[in-house]
Amino acid sequence: MTQLTLALAKGRTAKDTLKVLKKANITFPDFHKESRKLVFYSEDHSIKMIYVKAVDVTTYVEQGAADIGIVGRDNILEANADIYELLDLKLGICRFVVASLKALSLVKGSSVKVAAKYTHVAKKHFEKKGIHAETIKLNGSVELAPIIDMADCILDIVETGSTIKENGLTIIDEVEPISTRLIANKASFATKTAAVQNFVEQIKDVLE
Amino acid sequence: MYLYHNTENDLVINVEQIHFRQQVIQAFKERFSTYGYHEIYTPAFEAYDLYAHLNGTVNQEEMIKTIDNTGKVLVLRPDITIPITKLISNSNQQLREDLRYFYIQNVFRQPQEQTDYREKTQAGVEYFGNTSPEADAEIITLAIHLMRDMKVDQFKIELGHAAFFDQIVNEMNLAKDDLEALQQAIQAKNITEIEDILAKITVEDDIKEILTSLPFLYGEPKQVIERASALPLTEALQATLQNIRNIYDVLVSYGVSEHIVVDLSLINHMDYYSDMIFQGFIDKVGKPILMGGRYNTLANEFKANIPAIGFAFDMDLVLEGVSPNALPTAEILDAVILFDKATEKDALTLANQLRMKSFRVVTYKSETQKEQIPSATYEIQFTEEEITITQDDDIMTYNDIDSVLAALKERR
Known about the structure:
The structure holds 2 protein chains of 2 kinds. Chain A is an alpha/beta fold. In chain A, about 30% of the residues lie in helices and about 30% in strands.
């Protein structure tokens, strides 16, 4: 039997993802959240799961250290990795938006200072619109940047938009919807086709 | 990778790795010759202009540039196919006889990702002239043969066609942004994204059906071709599919079909590819170790009409994936000869005679400290009375060097 290595993102959606896997009869008996272990095996050992930071999932998969991965589309877009994105698990649904304190005239040729955790996504978004963007990388509390006048606007993930509203910001642009995705390494897809496709089908069946 | 300074600035030389690398390269060269290919070299410096006017080939930002005395801009060879094609185009408008060339050379790029090496060894072939499916299949078979030589059993060649995607989008009138987004989504087999993009643009139902099927047109060649032919294909697309079918049929005759998957969503990574394209994957290496395809129109850039097909292996990735056990190991020496002043002449004569027979031999005075002497298969000890050969626990005794020579030749 071909064993697949699955990189699973820690954080927000891990619990829901594991529920989906359980529905598909893929369980990890050793797994519990407080464990310091990083590697877990499914009951039949067909899946070796590595439990890693969400931002690292695409790296493990692109390098081929993991055959498949489950991670938010926010991280996939930011990593700009050369991988397959095979399935939408429709979990952790949220979206990328641009928000600011006051209205901005974002027309072609203008320039803007944008604070974001996802600087690559921000750059690409404004580039597409023909706007020159200077990005400022922040790792948290991105909403603060316009308030203290460090940036004109922010690009960030929102689920309901309440954090943004509470800080007096308004959404001025919808960028992209986000949800949890199943990704695969291209070489693994070629050399372990049946195993990867079976895994995808197994998950797909319980989603519907 | 093989000779470098570590963080403490000590010189680190990995002799075994260098030896292994040489063996792999030698095996590649021999295999290339058995398919009628001749080795060629291209210069390390190329004119920047050669690449600058060819869009969609080598990323200009990735080229390593330099300026010569006259102010001319040069680049360190970023690719090998383009200079070879130029050279052949300059001396022939058309070819009468097919040409088959191979190269093992380094290419230089300054990649955006920092983990990549700037200097990469490529082993590749270029086959000029023949446009038949037999030529396409032959070149894929050669790639497979190389992997078999390397005792790699888990490997797959993904076979696609550059024209397939182009012919589909030619039917649509897509804005550049949408085309790029669509291309990216198809390359990622991201069906959600493909559907999102198609929902935003006006597109005929037939084309929509083909595009949303693309991510699934992957796998066992016969099945994929069958599923694809059930789609509402244009005549051009049908001809493209027929071309893949023809190539696959020849691959079946070569007996290599188990390594082939057809991937109709494969898209050009180099704009010069015009027809069949392919890439190769092996177990435990996360990136394609091999890329290639047919480039029938590249010579047109140099005012000639010479169809061609080629591929290149990334040798650094090959070395990552090939087990050193696949080839004869980096070998300890064949023999250590130990002697003293009285037996010096005989000992050194034996050493030379063994070397003439391609044995790898070192010689030392008997009093030399043991730790200083490299290990070898045979230890040959000269004393005034006799010559003893020790191999592991086996000890044999001889009276003269001729019988030693005979014994060693026998054992080999």
